[in-house]
Each structure stands twice: as C-alpha cells, then as structure tokens.
Amino acid sequence: MLSLRNVTKRFGSITALDNASLDIAPGEFFGLLGPNGAGKSTLMSLVAGLRGADSGTIEFGGQPVAGGTGGYRQNLGLVPQTIALFLELTAEENLRIFGELQGLRGLKLKAALDDAFAAAQLEDRRKSLVKTFSGGMLRRLNLVAALLHRPKLLLCDEPTVGVDPQSRNAIFEHLQQLNRSGVTIIYSTHYMEEAERLCSRIGVIDHGRILALGSLDELLTKLPFEDEITFPANSGTAQLAAQLAGSGEITAIDGTHRFRPRAGYPLSAFFTLTEALGLPPRLFISQRPTLEALFLHLTGRKLRDA
Amino acid sequence: MSQVLILLRKSLLSFWRSKAAVFITFLVPIVLIYLFGHVFGLYRSGSGPAGIPIAVVNLSREPAAQNFVDALKAEKAFALITTVDLGKGATRPLTEADVRSDLHDNRYRYALILPADLIPENSLGVHLKFLFNPRNEIESQTVNGLLQKTIFSNVPQLLGQSLQRNAHRFLGDERFEHFNRTIANTVADNFGGDREEIYQRNIAGDFGFANLQGSNRGKADGQNSAASSLAGSRESATGDQKPADVFSRIINLESEQVAGKELKNPMAARLVGGYAIMFLLFAVSGSATTLFEEKNSGVFQRLMSCPVRPAHILWARFLFGVILGLVQITALFCAGRVFFGLDIFGHAGALLAVSLAAAAACSAFGMLIAAIAPSAAAANGMATFVVISMSAVGGAWFPVSFMPDYIQRISKLTLVYWSVEGFADVLWAGRSMIEVLPKVGILAGIAAGVMLVAVWRFNRGKLFD
Q1: Mapping DSSP to helix (H, G, I), strand (E, B) and coil, where does residue B378 land?
Q2: Which of A28, A190, B76, B284 has a C-alpha 20 to 30 A away from that of B209?
C-alpha cells in the first residue's frame, strides 16, 4: 500500500530522515516509535505529501505521493500532533469545514458528522465553541476531524500528547476499531506502551534512521536476552548479584537488581543458583523485556531520556 | 474555487466569533473618528483655531492702538490677556516684564507688545513686538499669521498714520496739507462725500471709503467675494467688507469655491477616508498574521493533507481581507454620515469602486507583510511601523499639501495616498465613477503588484513548509 525507498530529508545541515525504507501493507497498524526529534513527524509529513523528500521515493498504491492533491489526499487522513482546529468556531463548524474541503456535501456530510461526533463521544457538544473544550475533548475532535471522509490511510502524529487516561483509552479503542474496519494506520509515538498495545508492527527510529522494524515479538528477539529478572538489592541478594555478573547484564536501580541473561543462558541455572543461596522464589520477578530495553540496546539511551 | 470559498467562509466565521477583532475593527475606529472630529473642530460651526491665549501690553497712546486691541479681542482665535490679577478683584495692566516672565513660566506662549513708538517717527510701518515661547512651531506660525491678518484687516489706520507721518516729514507742513487736500478733493469729486471730513480722515490715516457712495462691494450670486490686503488674502463668507479696510481695495482677489460647496463638513471627508484606510490596513495586517497562527497550530498541515493547495489558502485570505475592508470602510463612512453628514449615498457607485480597490490594495499589503515577516510577532511589529508611516506620509492624518515636496513625491508611492485621494474625489469633489477610474485603476494595480510579490515571497518562504 505504502512504500518508502531510501528516503532522505534534510533541513539545512540537519538530516531529519536518513535513507529510510519502509513498506506498509493495507490494514496494518504500524507504529513509529522514537524520542522527540527522532524524525517521526518529518516522516509523517513526507508520507502526507506535505513536503518533498530530498532523495528517495514514497509511493501509495504505486503512485508517488509528493505533489498529489487529488486521489491520494482523498484517501489520506492526518491527525497532527497539535490541535489543528479553529478554536473560535464550534465543533460542528470545524468538522463541516474539513468535511467540505474533503468534498463531502449534503447527506453524506451530515452522516459523516453524526458518525464523527458519536465516535468522539461529543454529540452533546456539537454546537459548543472548540475553545471551551477540555484537552481530552480537543484530542478526540482532532482525531475524528481526519476521519470524516473515511480515509484508507490514517496518519496519527502523537495524537495522545497531554491526554487524560480516559480520553486516551477512548482514542485507542476508536483507532483499533478503525483498524479492524480496514483502515491502515501509521501511529507515531514516543510512548512504548502505546506502540506495544496498538501496533501490529513497529519501526524504531532515532536521529532520522529506522533502527529496527518488525512486530513486537520480532523486535524483542533482537535483544540478547529473552527475559528480564528483577529482585531486591540488599545484603541477602548481594552474593547472587555478584555471581550473576558473568552470566548477563546486571544493574542496580532504586533498590532493585535487574538481571538480563546473555543469549543462551538457561533460566534453570539461575534458579539452581538462588536455591543454593537459600533465596526464596517469591523474591524474583521474571518478565518479558520491553521496547524500552530494545531502544536502550539499540541506542545506548533510554527512550524517555533521548 | 470551492476550496477558496470554504476557507473564506471559515475566516469570516472566525472573525465574527472573535469579539475582540470585531471591536477593534469597527468600534475602535468609529469612536476614534468621532473623537478626532471633536479634536479637529468638525462639530463647530466655524473651523480653525480658537481661544489661543495671548498677552497684550499696550504702551502706545495712539487711539488706533486701542482699536487694534479691540480687534484682537474680537478675533475668536485668541483669548486676550491684558491685565494682572492682584487679588480681591483688583487688576493692573500687564507690563513687558510680566509677559517675559510668564512666557518663561509657560503660563501662555504668545505676547504682543504695542510699544510707545507704535508708529515710529523715522520709518514707515508699525512697530510691534511679538514674544513667543515656541513650544509648537505650527501654532506659532498660525498666531503670527492671524496677527498680521488682524492688523491689515481691522486696523489699517495704523499703517495710514505711519504713511501720513512720513509724508509729513518729507513734504513739510505746506506741501503735506496741499497733498491731502488734493486727495480729499479728488475723492469727493469722484465718489462724493464731504471734502473737509475726508481731509480730516486722511490726516488721521483713515483711508476708509465705505461710507462713500458707489463703493464696490464685489459680491456675486453663489460666490464668496474676498479681498486681499497687502499681507495676504482675506476671505469673507458673507461677502461683506469691513468699512475701514482700504487695503482690501488695493488688491481685489475674488475667490470662488468650485468644489465641495454643498458639503456640510468638508474636512470630514478627509478625516473619515484617511482613518478608514489606516484602520483597514491595521485590520488586514492583523488578519494576515493569523496565517502564522494557523501554521503553528498545525491547521495548515491538516488543510494541506486535504485537497487544498497553498494558493487556495492565500486567495481565501486575500478575499477575506477585501470583504473585511469593504465592510469596514462602509461602516466607517456610515459613521461619517451620522457624525458629520457625509454624502455617501449620492455617490454610492463611485465610492464603492474606490472602496473596493482600496480594500484590495490593503488586503494585498497585509498578505505581503505576512509573506515577508518570519513570524507573527515580527509581522505585527512590521505592520505597525509601515501602516503608521504610510498613513502619515500618504495623507491619512493631514493633507499631503502640508508636507515638504520630497514627502509629497514619496506619498504618491503609497496606497494610502491614492485611497484618500480617491475618497476625496468622490466625497469632496463629487466625481463620477468614470472620473475616479484612474485612481481606482492605480489602486487595483497596486493590489495586483503587491499580491504578486506576496505570492512570490510565499513560494520562497517557509510558511507552508
């Protein structure tokens, strides 16, 4: 459906996107995970056709997207990172304008507005000025404004920034429902939890380069460990921590030891050791590593610190 | 085109919903026009300055000196101060030392001394001292001119006495009497009157002939006849001439107002036109800077992800400026109609043509500001500087004819000049649609040229990046 080949975009001396290649299949929920300034918004704007790439190609359905105003844009919905609404107008006036710009008229427009307000749970605020909305309401309206014309490809550029958990869940559920109905979604975020929860495939991006690409499971296999074991850091576990040093990565953070076994290290060996040291199993929590660990592994930095 | 109209509707709706924008665009200029109407005296029956305090010290014993003081008292431009208040109702006449001290203390800014040698023995003319504190150069010159006018118009016998004394000195007693007798006889023979009375008046320096038969009053129907003294012209609204004003007969300047005679308040046409354009420039510049706000809010991203091109956004904004301008100008001229009785309906077609062209030029100017400026804050600062400069130079505040030659040449480069001149052509001179077409064409040309530059700059700029 969407194909990026060796796409590079520079702003002066800064390379915002560096030789990026990516294929997104129809119906996919693709996550673009990276810290602020990683190049996510640049990639989104290039895919939306708002900018041209310095080199490389971006195609949608085999057609280049740059400079396209007609067919491609009618298949495209963009949810900008900011609240891209006219604050002095009512919610209905906003959606009517965006619907009309997408070519909707008459009953089609009315039906689209009704659906959008229902999806955003804002039916009772249609006639309210947008500037009176809460942050969550603004985000929900910001999302549905991109969906009026039922696009095939939806670009969501960090659509939950500053949103309360309730509105965030409402947005997630709506996006998942859209995706189930066949809408292809590209979702950029710097929240690994969002990418893990929503996306069937994830691209990890930093400094304009796509560092890893795949499903969550595929990405986690790139880590040199499969599990992560945490236990309290105290005098009773000090000997265990010392003995694990040669078996993987062990770090102490906030009174907790985190042990990431090296590839091939059998967990049975770990538990044999704890038993030998007389440490009860309840001290140990074994969990699947997160994208945070992957990002740290790929870049040497934490996602939130980047 | 439909995209442009949708965006235009959006801009109009947004504007209407912003009470502050509506207030600033319409109410503020209307209130200011009303206030400036008072400042410029447009609500008074007459025009010109009034009540300028001026101290007068009369040290002369000449009877004409007191006549001169009385004439100054009658001049509405002045509020005469002739005495010092000593308390308990007691006063004494001002002295030259008093007025010098008062001028230093800025109690008043002008003083006129009529010295003892008001009519000097050894030279021709009248000796006066004008003392002033030049805090306001324009006012000083106005006062100076009004004083000269008062002298020549109201007390010509001062000059007559000077002439007679000098004649007496040069001619001697016998020939001086013969000279004046000859004049008196000639006047009596040609214009009538008593020879002795005319002789005595000649001796006193009073050359007035108003009471003589056959005096030329020079008044024509529908015309204001004015007479000019040696010092300059004096215009009489009624056509009456002061009986003693012999100098007005020396140069008889007949003046006729050929345009704007029917205007209830001529200056109002300029005031309303000038301020309308200035506030329109502020309004459209402000509206153009919202382009930056829309860019920063991500609205441009959303719009451009729709089937919308930058040209749609720009033309919608331009059209919004034109419509806003047209409505604003209409509102301000309606206010001018209410406040000053401007005849806007008698020339509605021509006025609409000039207004439309002026609104287009102003809107294009707003677009250019947005195209050149790197940010909304810079655009606002730039707009304030350019609008105020252009309004001052272009004649929005006062006529360009008051300005130096080089400024007058520069003013013709501004859209304010052509707009104000266009409004004056319609409202002042009553010109028809055909007659104002050249100025409409110039304004339309400015609009097209500025808009082209703006679009070129937008294409090279980063607004749509």
Answers
A1: helix
A2: B76
In this prediction the ipTM stands at: 0.81
Q: How confident is the model at residue B219 (pLDDT cuts 50, 70, 90)?
A: very low
Q: How far is A52 from chain B (nearest CA, A)?
A: 10
Cα distance between residue A26 and residue A19, in whole Å: 23
Rounded CA separation A99/B399 (Å): 51
Report whether pLDDT(A271) > 70: yes
Candidates A70, A78, A89; nearest CB to B302: A78
Structure tokens at A261: 């076994």
Cβ-based neighbour number of residue B43 at 10 Å = 12
Does any CB of chain A come closer than 8 Å to the CB of residue B3? yes
Token digits of residue B293: 């706000």
Are residues A274 and A163 located together in one domain of the fold? no
- Cα four-point dihedral sign A239, A242, A248, A254: positive
Report which of A58, A33, A85 is spatially closest to residue A215, judged by C-alpha positions: A33
Helices A135-144 and A91-101: crossing angle, nearest 10°? 20
Q: Based on the fold, state whether residues A121 and A260 are members of the same structural domain.
A: no
Cα separation, A176 vs B28, whole angstroms:
52
| B327 alpha-carbon distance from chain centroid | 27
Beta bridge partners, A210, equal: A205
Q: Tens digits of per-residue pLDDT, B106-130?
A: 888 899 999 988 888 777 778 888 8
The segment(s) of chain B belonging to CATH 3.40.1710.10 are 52-154
Task: Name, in order, each residue with C-beta under 8 angstroms of B147's C-beta and a sequence gap of 6 or more.
Answer: B72, B112, B128, B130
With H, G, I as helix, E, B as strand and everything else as coil, classify residue B120.
Answer: coil
Check if the beta carbon of residue A252 is closer than 8 Å to that of residue A235.
Answer: no
Cβ atoms within 10 Å, residue B47: 12
Instruction: Give me the half-sphere count of Cα atoms (radius 13 Å) on the Cβ side of residue B12.
Output: 15
CATH code, domain carrying A276: 3.30.70
- Assigned architecture for domain B52-154: 3-Layer(aba) Sandwich (3.40)
Residue in A closest to B20 by C-alpha: A88
Kindly state whether residues A191 and A281 are assigned to the same domain.
no
Q: In this structure, are residues B94 and B81 in contact, taking their beta carbons and an 8 Å threshold? A: yes
Distance separating alpha carbons of residues A285 and A274, to the nearest angstrom: 13
**Among B9, B301, B305, beta carbon nearest to A73:** B305
| Strand residue runs (E) in A25-75 | 29-33, 55-60, 63-64
For residue A65, the chain B residue with the least C-alpha distance is B305
**Are A242 and A197 in a shared domain?**
no
Q: Does B301 touch chain A (CB under 8 A)?
A: yes
0.80 surpassed by pTM: no
Pairing of strands A153-157, A184-189: parallel
The answer to whether the CB atoms of A50 and B302 lie below 8 A apart is no
CA torsion sign for A136, A142, A145, A150 is: negative
Nearest alpha carbon to residue B332 among B288, B414, B269, B261:
B269
Q: Dump pLDDT digits (tens) for B72-103.
A: 888 888 899 999 988 888 899 999 999 999 98
CB contact under 8 A, B299 and A84: yes
In this structure, what CATH number is given to the domain that contains residue A165?
A: 3.40.50.300
Q: A248 lies in which domain range?
A: 228-288
Domain shared by A58 and A10, yes or no: yes
Q: How far apart are CA B36 and CA B39, in angstroms?
A: 5
Q: What is the per-residue pLDDT across A128-155, written as a single tens digit (0 to 9) for each?
A: 999 999 988 999 999 999 999 999 999 9
Indicate if A232 and A85 belong to the same structural domain: no
3-state secondary structure of A229: strand
Give the number of domains in chain A: 2
